[in-house]
């Protein structure tokens, strides 16, 4: 009888898991870490998409503006290239200054915590905090690259077309397609309605190009 009881208790059917709570807690922590990592990555990607959209709209608007008064392809390409370089430098400098200011604030906060003698702030924790600090150079390079990628769309679209009206039409078509794609990506990464976001980005880009083209045409026709 004793042997039978021992066998029954050793049966996996009657095994009681001891560490269920610990296992569940560990799984929840892992899920939270994955969600946090995804959230962080999605924010960076969304910022890159917005930077590319900025480069696309500003460069295309500049090219449409100069195209309103000059039909020469060289003038349009040079204007677009100047807008790409100036915009990328501006984005990089602005992002560098912004992230460096954030870095200074976080370093000052860490210094205050160490001075208070936080007993729990060991070497390992300080090392992890330093790894999580923002990198101004990386942020500046990412902003400049994203802006440049967006600005390349209208530049490439206009580079090989000599006919004035066809060139303008191709630039508008290429920018329209890119605006839809950027609007869709921004909506997906920001978990926003896709159609609404895409239409908003598309209409905003169209308005920017139309206003720049119209005002430049008006000023050019007035003889200024």
From TrEMBL:
Residues 124-133 have a biased composition (Basic and acidic residues). PANTHER family: FE(2+)/MN(2+) TRANSPORTER PCL1. It is found in: Vacuole membrane. The keyword Cell membrane does not apply. Pfam families: VIT1 (PF01988). This is Vacuolar iron transporter. Vacuolar Fe(2+) uptake transporter. Belongs to the CCC1 family. It comes from Xanthoceras sorbifolium.
